[in-house]
Amino acid sequence: MRRVDIGIPCYKYGHYLEECVRSVLTQEGVDVRVLIVDDASPDNSELVGRRLASEDPRVEYRRHAVNQGPSASYNEPIDWADAEYFLVLSADDLLTPGALGRAVTLMEAHADVVMAYGRVIHLRGAEDRPPCPPPRTFETRVVSGSQFCEESCAKVANLVFTPTAVVRTSQQKAIGPYRKDLPHTGDMDMWFRCAARGSIGFIDADQAYYRVHGQNMSTVQYVGATDLNQQWVVFEELFRTQGHRLGNPELLDAHVRQDLAWRAFWMAGDHFERGERAACDECIALAVRLWPDVRRTGAWLRFVCKSAVGPHAWSRLRPAVDALRGRRVRETSPMG
Questions:
Q1: CA angle, 264 as apex, 260 and 270 as ends, to 5°?
Q2: Which of 16, 81, 270, 310 could anchor a disulfide with 5, C-beta 3.0 to 4.6 Å?
Q3: Rounded to two decimals, what is the model's pTM?
Q4: Which of the four CATH numbers 3.90.550.10, 3.30.420.40, 1.20.1640.10, 3.90.226.10 does domain 3-213 have?
Q5: Cα(49)–Cα(283) distance, rounded to whole angstroms?
Q6: Do residues 210 and 120 make contact, with C-beta atoms less than 8 angstroms apart?
Q7: What is the C-alpha separation between 119 and 159, in angstroms, rounded?
């Protein structure tokens, strides 16, 4: 059987940790090994981690004396891994039955595939995982690294959920660690770096349970202009290092800039409505930097007018403005 090493970063997820580890140890058709990296959790993570390691020789547990942040907890297992394949699985996520076997089968059949990923089932908070029996049949798809990057640019999105991303360990070590200067978007940066070295495989099946809750980095810490700016840093690096491999890189660059600019602009509007002026200004500055022509749009003019009256006055004027807009729409409608 092919071997797969699983790194499990854990910070304050002691209540999820055992279920996560069990979802790995029960994988069929592969030989697994687990490294739990406890980033100085103040909860019961140490108690759970040490017990799991004492119960199964396939499980190792390490604890940081002080919190080092997510990048260190992701990178430590990369140095530790020596199996053919490697996966980072956050302690609050879970693998579905047969996930590793499906990924390894695809990668064994395609020697050029550097990384394989699939779909996820979203869990809300402490919601129990619904049953997910292994599918009898499922489709797979292999694309060139450049095509994967082009599709990411077209959607201006991170296409891969980390708990599904199985990487060849030799390639992972050659690619290097997660970047500490990209705590918000280091995963997407990693996928682009994988794509620079070969093909990417997609498994059209549920490969993991991805938990969304109040402590997720994606739902709490990583929002606002900082997140959008780091998304742009990753795309900018992609165009700088791999632009020559992409079709119409100039067009893709313009598309990404405009899309992120609009996101920053609408986010600025949300901050304005809440009276968060500093955050609003930060988003506006990012929108203009990415796409200066945003200042030529009707939406920009309306924002300038709102800014002139201020958030408090605008909150009083808005009902009348919305009513006037509705009246104009009715008057110009062919059904009006």
A1: 145
A2: 81
A3: 0.90
A4: 3.90.550.10
A5: 41
A6: yes
A7: 10
